[in-house]
## 1
Amino acid sequence: MNDTTARNFTLDDAVNDIEKRYVRANPKSEVHYQAATKTMPGANTRSTLHHDPFPVVLVKGEDARISDLDGNSYVDFLGEYTAGLYGHSEPTIKQAIIDALSGGFVLGGPNPYEARLAELMVERFPAVELIRFCNSGTEANMMNISLARAVTGRPAVMALNGSYHGGLFSFAGGSPSPMNAPIEAVIGEFNEVDRCRDLIRRHANRLAALIVEPVMGGAGCIPAEDDFLHMLRHETEQHGIVLIFDEVMTSRLSPGGLHQLVGITPDLISFGKYLGGGVTFGAFGGRTDLMARLDPRQPDALVHSGTYNNNVLTMAAGIAGLSKVFTPDITERLNQTGDDFRQHLQSVADQHDAPFQIMGRGSMICIHPQREPIKTFADTATSSPAARKLVHLEMHLRGFYLARRGFMSLSLPLTESDLNSFAEAFEAVVTEHGQVLAAH
Ligand SMILES: Cc1ncc(COP(=O)(O)O)c(C=O)c1O
């Protein structure tokens, strides 16, 4: 037993100790945080970014490095919750944004960029025949859901427990958010094939759509099992229910998205995050007959508007990223790196008999401080918040940036040496705190 484990007798002691060190390392961020509470609730404009005692204020990013107000720097393993795929200074994307900016912005009409990005996405994602742009993944999901309800004339939508489709349609935390849009929701258990099949059949004539994250990102990178997704496709097809894949995060997991990887054609797909090259982005698309209902040449066309849907900065950055940087072979390489990295972290934990499950698929990864296997959202309940906090703050103070809940997504500028350094730091945390983590 080394000095720290002797001193940190319980998990709470260990957490108190690391929190004090975190506060000491970040005095300017703390002052900034306190001042910002006067004008924003909890100094926050994006709930996901809050954690106690306060988050550090980020002031600069380059490649896969970021630094904060107190001058601490980090290797960025969060990757802006998958939106930061390209890192913080990708030169091709930067140039594309500068060029678009020089050509003038907020022009107020169609521009040459949007059709090109549409073309690239239709070529890339097999289930997408027609596409439209919006400003966020939240919007993309709400549009897909509304489109399905309008076309089918049915009221309800089936979602899976633990899933996050944006702040207006969230089942994170194991129940529907009180902030959800007032849409009747039928909630099934992720990866529970028989129970979900029964539920779909029972509610079939009320269900406009079924929406699923093929890897539940926010819930802790829990992959849907292939037979679960195939069952959803089969049943929704049988009952005329629109199957929506929320690929806001997962579209990065293969050149043609997760749906290509598992060989399933959903009716509609929601996109977001990295596909805007790091600028505000959302898109939704899929089957021609569904999307064509939005064709404004039709007298009964459904309306989808949005002032910034085709903003030139996003469109130009998205085109540069998809056509010149995140090419199919680079996509495959990044995800292979993610699979290897996840296995490496798991083997580090296993070698020390430490209680960890490293979940995910490809470049989406989540560290869960628990021994029990994870298949559904409920399975993550055995990870204690204190253990998550300990791992997060320990890795943070060692110079690695990730989410409190253990979420990480790999970005292109991360190097092999970055991954090895992370694994070494993780091993140090596991050895230092193995006993208190195992005992909690
Ligand atoms: C699966 C999924 N859907 C939707 C969203 C919402 O996207 P946005 O934050 O762009 O509104 C997110 C965001 O994390 C997500 O992970």
Note: Residues 1-5 have pLDDT under 50 and may be disordered.
## 2
Amino acid sequence: MDKVYFYPVWIRVWHTINALMCLALIITGVSMQYSSIENPIIRFDHAVAWHNVSGIILTFNYFIFYIGNILKGNGVHYKILWKGFWPSIIKQFQYYAFGIFKNQKPPFPINKTKKFNPLQQLSYLFIMYGFVPVMVVTGWALLFPELVVNDVFGNIGLFITDLIHVIAGFVVSLFMIVHIYFCTIGHKPGSHFKAMASGYHEVHE
Ligand code: HEM
């Protein structure tokens, strides 16, 4: 068994802040969306303030991820090799749906150059370069609606921005639940969490 240093300090710091801020945004977001003013889960003005602060921290943290991926080379793990891509996705899906219950070996085990399997890669790519940026941009637009949204598009612009923000937030929340579940599927249930905590991933090949 070998160990590969896949999660340097900057990724672990980014990931911890990202996870904490997403949790704070989900809790305050759900409170603002679903609790009534008279009977709030969190007092409305407090929920708004915490939601704004968490969103601002998440934004600056996102830049660490974006720039770090470029400067430190971690971005290669997000680059999709289209040749044979869909068959690999299907293979990985079949493993999660059936193979895993028959004690089969994973079709794309972690190796020294690949830290994500194809489904992981696709979901991380969609979330980190799709839904999170959309959530961030619409969040800022809602923080300063008078700057563009209201001026250019009026009330309908504000409504659409809000709708996109809520949908993106919902997808990121769903991702987080599924992501944590899939992180338990490793050599041992705690292997991936141990890797993210220590930086070193075990490679069993
Ligand atoms: C409490 C919440 C979370 C936990 C416990 C958690 C856990 C983990 C673990 C264990 C890994 C390593 C996966 C592996 O070894 O293959 C990981 C990686 C990752 N997580 Fe999370 N995660 C959480 C929240 C999030 C959220 C909210 C996002 C995005 C919105 C996210 C995005 C990612 C990404 C992109 C990676 C890969 C990072 C890289 O190496 O480039 N995680 N997470």
Note: Strands lie at 2-5, 200-203.
